[in-house]
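Practice problem: predict the structure.
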Amino acid sequence: MSKLFAYDNPIWVFMGKVADAMILSFFWFLFSLPVITIGASTSALYYTTLKLAENREGYLFKTFLKGFKESFKQSTVIWIILGLIGGMLSFSIIQYQKVGSEVALTLLWALIIFAFLYLLIFTVIFALNGRLSTGIPNLFMMTFMVCIKHFSWALFMTVILACMIAVSIFVFWPILLITPGVAAYVNSIILTKFVFPKYGWNLKDEEDDIEAEVTSED
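Answer:
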């Protein structure tokens, strides 16, 4: 019985991580208020949850703030790019739905497939930006590589986020308040356990950034 209440019990350790993820959700909402900073907030969130997944988190706010400052410029550019692409995709899909021709239907399905890939990239790219030190073109290439080579994990990550958002909207809205941190933490566990080790992207010693190039898997 004493082991059940021990501070190092795996159950309590995991619950502590979930509590940290919930706190990080508050930080994410706070730093995302200007809207234009959502990209930087998301990168900072993953910067912190990836460390949580590796038991390297330290002080949550200090770690989150560091990730926010370091990724602000690049994350904001990525957020704008993704926002523009997402807006054009949404507009095009809506327009082609109104046209009844076979050509329009073919183009509509092509856009839907592209939108699906867009969602995978949107889910993964800020996590990679929170861990890797590389330029925007290279980051998009690496994100695409991860989404294709690890399609099942990228899909699972996207489904986790989508399900939490759907439950919060249609079932119990307060879940939305913890969705960013919890989803990012679960996705960070997936990345650090099953994806990053294949490319040497897990942290070693006290490293905070990893210089990365596009590599192929053996």
